[in-house]
Amino acid sequence: MLQNIRVVLVNTSHPGNIGGAARAMKNMGLSRLVLVQPRDFPSEQASARASGADDLLAGAEVVDSLEAALVGCTLVLGTSARDRSLPWPMLDPRECGVKAVEHARGGEQIALVFGREHAGLTNDELQRCHFHVHIPSNPDFSSLNLAAAVQVLAYEARSAWLAVQDGARVEVGEASEPLATMDEMERFYDHLEQTLVQIGFLDPAKPKHLMARLRRLYGRSAVNHSEMSILRGILTETQKVARGEPHKRKD
Ligand code: SAH
User: Fold this and answer.
1) Does the C-beta of 68 come closer than 6 Å to ligand 1?
2) In what order do the strands lie in the sheet with 5-10?
3) Could you say which of 2.30.110.10, 1.10.8.590, 1.50.10.20, 1.20.120.450 is the CATH number of the domain covering 182-243?
4) Which of 8, 143, 175, 195 could bridge to 81 as Cys pair (CB 3.0-4.6 Å)?
5) 18 CA → ligand 1 middle, Å
6) What is the pLDDT of residue 170?
7) One Gene Ontology cellular component annotation (predicted)?
8) CB–CB of 185/230 below 8 Å?
């Protein structure tokens, strides 16, 4: 079950942190590590810091975009050491663990996403996440070391998983139908953006965070497969009307 929770490290500079993250994961029973354009990997420093978690490093997937790292995921939890311009649904580490386990139990794929050592995640990357997770650290010194941050969230995921093993109840969502995956959502956002430009609702010269706000709205909605088909169908018909082509209602 914990294997459904992947850890995604974006543009990590120091290979030692990749090794440290792998060790933290293996200690807590997580196994799937995805690296988005790491600066230096594979590396001896990574293996040295992993001390015994080399199997996770050997199995790590290296991809060239966050989008590729999130393929198949229905829940994406992005970490942030500080507040961002557009407020987003927030979780603390405990809530993050519970939510991740709740979804992972239903067979869904979940991603915990961590940013660059010096700059964290970009706004664009954070807007691809359903929730932001902040570790409530000292406000005067809020940034944890990357591998330490992975340790905190991996521990909370394990704790939530252990609570379920003990028979404690963790709310299971009504997800009788599978949720749309991140790749489906990305295709939808592209389609939505094109359509909004086409009908003149979105001015590409003055986007005013519209797409980010819409991502936040749809991200909150837990859209499932059949709902996604409806949304895509609406966009397709809207585009036909905008182009003056024949569409469903013929009168
Ligand atoms: N200077 C960066 C900090 C990056 S720390 C910034 O201001 O964003 C590297 C990564 O560790 C972050 O991207 C995040 O994934 C994780 N991290 C560090 N401290 C954290 C905290 N307090 N809460 C959540 N994640 C944190």
Assistant:
1) no
2) 61-63, 32-36, 5-10, 109-114, 73-79, 131-133, 90-91
3) 1.10.8.590
4) 143
5) 14
6) 45
7) cytosol
8) no
- Enter the tokens of residue 212: 């980010």
pLDDT, tens only, 25-46 = 999 999 999 999 999 999 999 9
Is the CB of 81 within 6 Å of ligand 1? yes
Ligand 1 contacts CB of residue 143 (under 6 A): yes
Q: Percentage of the chain surpassing pLDDT 90?
A: 84
Instruction: State whether the beta carbon of 114 lies less than 6 angstroms from ligand 1.
Output: yes
3-state helix, strand, coil in the chain (%, to 5): 45, 15, 40
pLDDT digits (tens, 9 = 90+) for 112-158: 999 999 999 999 999 999 999 999 999 999 999 999 999 999 999 99
The superfamily in CATH containing domain 2-165 is SPOUT methyltransferase, trefoil knot domain (3.40.1280.10)
